[in-house]
Amino acid sequence: MIDMKGKVAVILGVANKRSIAYAIAEKLAAAGSTLVLCYQSERLRAESEELLESLGQTGTGKAIQLDVSRDEEIDAAFAQIAAAFPVIHTLVHAVAFAPADAIKNDFLLTKRDDFRIAHDVSVYSLIAVARAAAPLMTEGGSVITLTYYGSTKTFPNYNVMGVAKAALEATVRYLAASLGSKNIRVNAISAGPIKTLAARGIGDFTQILDAVTQRAPLHRNVEQVEIGNTALFLASDLASGITGEVTYVDCGFNVTGI
């Protein structure tokens, strides 16, 4: 049993109970972590507080507004976090976005501004929040982000997000090199396709799920709880020698050819 009592985890991207970030939050909370859930805007505040309550964090954890596209909000959020928790141990970055047209249209038609937005929100935000979190990780710690196999192989209707995920994985490696001297580890989990609300924006998503079931060595799709288990491991001391890595949790789909 992994014990995270006395540890503080800051989690970005817990949109609802079906999100991968929520599954990670559940596992960290069950292991004893105190949680800080960051929500994008004021309209999501009540829902985030309800999610915090559902995780058994009322009175211990906090919900804080943080729009990763705004540097002033990142600074303000981590100032609030520092006031409540002088030391944090885990940072989970489960944030990604690209305009709908940049995902559903032919990749050749990607607009400059859509490309910029996808990389700003999905990639640069990891650098920005890691920079803000690092001074609070005085006991070392773990930074975890989420990626997808579309970073290395083309998938229908993934398009610019696949390019952003490739940049995200490179960012993981460079951040690992940058933060290693502070004993801060940086890793990515490459989750297989999961039926989340975010996944609804990907056309023909059911075809991808079916392909995994047919071709993956385990002949099934991965479940949220399995991503949560992997994140808990990477956040714990059991993974103390692992950094700069992309860990596939996709029932083995990535090792297959045809």
UniProtKB/TrEMBL annotation:
rRNA-binding recorded as keyword: no
Keywords carried by this UniProt record: Fatty acid biosynthesis, Fatty acid metabolism, Lipid biosynthesis, Lipid metabolism, NAD, Oxidoreductase
EC number: 1.3.1.9
UniProt record similarity statement: Belongs to the short-chain dehydrogenases/reductases (SDR) family. FabI subfamily.
Name of one Pfam family that matches: adh_short_C2
Catalytic activity annotation: a 2,3-saturated acyl-[ACP] + NAD(+) = a (2E)-enoyl-[ACP] + NADH + H(+)
Name this polypeptide is given: Enoyl-[acyl-carrier-protein] reductase [NADH]
